[in-house]
User: What shape does this take?
Amino acid sequence: MLDMKLIRENFEETEQRLCSRGGSSYLDGFKELDEKRRALLKEGESLKALRNTVSDEIAKIKDKSQVQDKILEMREVSNRIKVLDEELKQVDEDLNGFLLTVPNLPHLDTPTGLSEHDNVEVRTWGSAPQFSFTAKPHWEIGEELGILDFECGAKLTGARFTLYRGAGARLERALINFMLDLHTGQHGYEEVLPPFLVNRESMTGTGQLPKFEEDLFKTVDPDFFLIPTAEVPVTNIHRSEILKKSDLPICYAAYTPCFRREAGSYGKDTRGLIRQHQFNKVELVKFAHPSESDQELEKLTANAEKVLQLLGLHYRVMLLCSGDIGFSAAKTYDIEVWLPGQSCYREISSCSTFGDFQARRASIRFREEEKSKPEFVHTINGSGLAVGRTLLAVLENYQQEDGSVIVPEVLRPYMGGIERIS
RNA sequence: GGAGAGGUGGCCGAGUGGUUUAAGGCAGCGGUCUUGAAAACCGCCGAGUGUAACAGCUCCGUGAGUUCGAAUCUCACCCUCUCCGCCA
Assistant: This one.
């Protein structure tokens, strides 16, 4: 959520920066609602002040015959207040509902552009493996090895669900443990294991609601949502809290499955593990002091990259342009891993700073000084990494001519010493 | 699922219709005293909104209601705890 004051006082500039996302207007209607709200507030508050003082007087008057006039007068004032409060409530809801649908301001570092074609390559690591044979896509490798059963996933649930078997299931679990151990052991994150279902408030805090309900799976009774990323429960750990400045940055690493409807992507990435309704992810989440959030994003991105480096997987880092960043994000790096079976780079991690956008929605604050007013923290998060996509990257990059797959050395301790899946 | 108890500031906790501007305590901050510390004593000490700064207004789990006036009364809901039942 954007700061109302900022919009009020820098209307044109704010609108202009928002428009770099590609829309033609984002703040239409704000001024009218804001002015109406302030007018109602002013009138209502002065009547309440009157009521409070007169009520006090009534309490102090002993001679009850003198009280009747005042009571009658205040009855009318109260009725008027009731009407104003109702109008105000409506306007407040409208204004709040409006603000909740306005996306975040792009960070000044975010390049202006309309689509992914305007994203900027920041760096690359490693190089694509060379094969003396034609590299296969992971769905062929996985099916031939009997470790990925897409048909059975479809039978059990439907499209975009997969059954992992044997070494495939174990490799997924190995990757989860490897990533968690790295981030908690080497990078200073605290491991958390949150609920996979959350309430509406949590979803609103991080920005999935109210705008993107159609992307979420939900339960009917009670009204809960399956998390689309651990970002949601983990960021909401500190919802409505005032954190100690000395505790910042707070860094969490969490493994969770993620559930996404993928509405609107019918026919896209239908084969293999790329786009599933349920997938595993290790997520990194930080709560940082505003002056340190930029460098914390760099560190978090480096922490995610480290996973790929240790696995020996070639990748590139893209800085997303204003037209390609998500609704809540101010600045985003995508890490894209090389997939030889498909001869392309695919996103395997998305690392973003949200500025105070989520913190304002979820009311996550800190104090600069012991006695100073609470200020909003900055939130930062990124995948470290998407596990299913990492598994498929391992399959495609470590495939051998005979159809077997070499297990990267760092994963062998997690695989009971297995060096090759065949 | 059944029965009961309860939700008040960072924490503990009083408060059952009107000096409650939410008592008191703990923690925290500032000061006096002290070579320094502790103790003692004095003062400050919730959030939001709003203002140049005051003032004002709102907030006692959430929402609705009664009243001139609600932390306090009524209704609904949410959450926590205890016991019983069921259960990984």
